[in-house]
Design goal:
This protein has 315 residues and is an all-alpha fold. The protein is built from 16 helices and two strands. It is globular, with a radius of gyration of 20 Å.
Length: 315
Amino acid sequence: MVEGELEELRRRLHDVGRGAHPTFAAAAMHLFATPGKLLRPTLVFLSARFGAAGAGGMTLDLAESLELVHTASLVHDDIVDRAALRRNVPTVNAVWDQDVALIVGDYLFAKAYALAAVLPKPEVIAMVAQTVFALCDGELTEISAPARMPNESEYLERIELKTASLYAACCQGAAILADAEPEHVAALGAYGTNIGLAFQITDDVLDLVGDEGDLGKEVGRDLAEAMPTLPMIYAVADMDGDRRELSRRIVAPDKSPGEVRELLAAIRASGGIERARDRARGFHDAAVEALGRLPERPERDALRDVADFVLARER
C-alpha cells in the first residue's frame, strides 16, 4: 500500500551522506545499507492518508526526518551501552570509535532538523523537536535512575518518553501535515502512543526469552546491564520468597555470565513474562480501539496489521 513511498525513502536514506564529510558518509552508508522494515515511516505514510492533503513530498520529508531522529538516538544509545552489535550488524562505535559515533549521531540529528525546518506546519516542526526532548529525557531517566527496582508506573513513564513518543509523532505529525480532522489527529496520536508502549514491552520480553540469532544481540543484555524492565518488575512482584534479594540481584552491576543465566532462569520460571505479554496486549488493544475513531478504509486495516505485527514479532 505504501511500498512506493518506502522505496523512495530507502533511496533517500542511502544517499543521506552524499556530499558530507567522508567519515560521516561511510558511517551513514553502514547504517542504512539494510534499513529494515521501516516501521515508523510506514506509520507516517499510512497516517497521512487520513488527511485531505494526503501523502506527498512533505510527508516523505517528515518520514525521513523522524527516521533520522530514530537512527541518531540508536547511535547514541549504543555509545551509552557500549554495544558492539545491533541486529547482527556492528555498531558505529564498534566499527569506528565512541568519538566518531557521537558526532555521527549529532550529524543525523542536524539532518533531521534541516528536513523538518522546511515543513509548512510550525506545530509539526515543533513536534519533531519535542520528540527529541522526550527521547533525551527518557534516556537520562534510564541512566540516572537509582540502583533499585522501579515500579510499573515509573517504567511506563520512561518507555513512553524513550519509545512511544516517536511512534506518536509519526502518526500525529503526518495527520497534521495532511490536514486531517482534529479528532482523527487525536485518534492517530493515541494509536501511536499505545503501539509504541506495546512495542517496547515486547522488546523487553524478547530480551529475556528471544533467540540471539533473531535478535542480533545477546539475550539477557538488560539484566547484564542492571536495567530493570517490566517482566523483571512482575517477576519480583510474583515471587513467593525474598523479593528484596531478587531485586538486589537484578539491579546489581557487574554480573558474571553465570549470574545472568541464573536470573534469566528465575524470571522465566515466574509469571513475569506472561504478565508483561498481557500488558503489551492491553496496549495493542487500546491502539486498535483508537483506530475505531477513524473512517473505515484500507489504511485503517493496514494500521491494524501493524499493531498485530508489533505484538506478535519475534525480533
